[in-house]
Amino acid sequence: MEMLITGGAGFIGSNFVRYWAARRPEDRLVVLDALTYAGDRRSIAELEREGRVVFVHGDICDQPLVESTLDRFGIETIVHFAAESHNSLAILDPARFFRTNVLGTQALCEAARRGGVARFHHISTCEVYGDLALDSDESFSEESPYRPRTPYNASKAGADHVVRSYIETFGLRATITNCCNNYGPYQFPEKVIALFSTRALEGQTLPLYASTKNRREWLHVEDHCRAIELVLSDGVVGETYNVGSGQEASIDQIADGILEAAGRPESLKTIVPDRPGHDRRYLLDSTKIRTELGWEPVVDFESGLKATVKWYRDNRSWWEPLIGRSPVVESSWASGPPPAQQS
């Protein structure tokens, strides 16, 4: 198979590239990535050196480039990870999120349609559904209405609608997965588990949002990769599948687990104001992918969190050069969004 992986130098994308290359070495993988601040070609460098991955530097909004890439490599399948994904940055610069996530997805779908791509898979998020009350026993199913609350959430919801429109109008052979929060190796240290892990290892304070009881559902990135593989092989074209672990944790629990794994004191926890639009809780009903495709997660959160902290401890050479690259300074939101950090 000839597969194009957009955003393949990012966190989930690069983990998927390594996962697929190990499982299906006969396939040719082409990575298309714009290498924004959160993309790092080092994450797939070994596979490039071995000739198992071809890298194309480019933007998914550049439709002529996408079309020429599809034609040049005879791409049969597209797995679409490329996205702006940091909620805090979306508050500072919402336009870049709508450009990449909505217009970029449309350009990619159109290129796929024109190029006769046989299979298209779009990676989305649980956050398109909005949030849940902390005391609720509800969860989001594939039939839940979209109620995004932040520019990032809205841009991913828009991308989902773009893909569905191409399925219905043009017959694009596509599927969508909406996944809960991912964690694991090679995550840029701005998302909470990567941020807390690197800061704890440095003996620095861990900034906890004031609503410390807010909860997220967490899935190890390898379990996400397994789900995508199953959807590509056995999923029904035109369908959406929620991918969730059922394992929830509050920011307090995450901080405590990371501090314990890093051997650091609880005194490193510090409270900062909530960012605007801070969601309370997400939980997905993943019955559909479990019953129809037989998927289930294999990495439990406690052991996965410890393994992730260990990975950051053992791979300082990967993340230390990234410190300070984030365009957001997560300082105080009390008087409004902080200024963007100068690169």
Distance between the termini: 39 Å
- Which consecutive residue ranges, at least 5 long each, have pLDDT under 50? none
SSE order, one letter for each helix or strand: EHEHEHEHHEHEEHEEHEEHEHHH
Structural class: alpha/beta
The overall strand count is 12
Distinct helical segment count: 12
The biggest beta sheet reads: 7 strands, parallel
**How are the strands of the biggest sheet laid out side by side?**
3-2-1-4-5-6-10
Report the C-alpha radius of gyration, rounded: 19 Å
Please state the average pLDDT score: 93
Helix residue percentage: 40-55%
Described by the principal axes of the CA atoms, the overall outline is globular
- Which percent range describes the beta-strand content? 15-25%
Write the layout of secondary structure elements.
Blueprint (H helix, E strand, L loop, with lengths): L1 E5 L4 H13 L4 E6 L11 H5 L3 E5 L5 H11 L3 E4 L6 H6 L1 H22 L3 E7 L25 H20 L3 E6 L1 E3 L8 H10 L4 E4 L5 E6 H14 L5 E4 L4 E3 H12 L6 E4 L14 H7 L7 H14 L1 H4 L24
Parallel strand pairs: 1-2, 1-4, 2-3, 4-5, 5-6, 6-10, 7-9, 8-12
Antiparallel strand pairs: 9-11
Helix pairs in contact: 1-8, 3-5, 5-6, 7-9, 7-11, 9-11
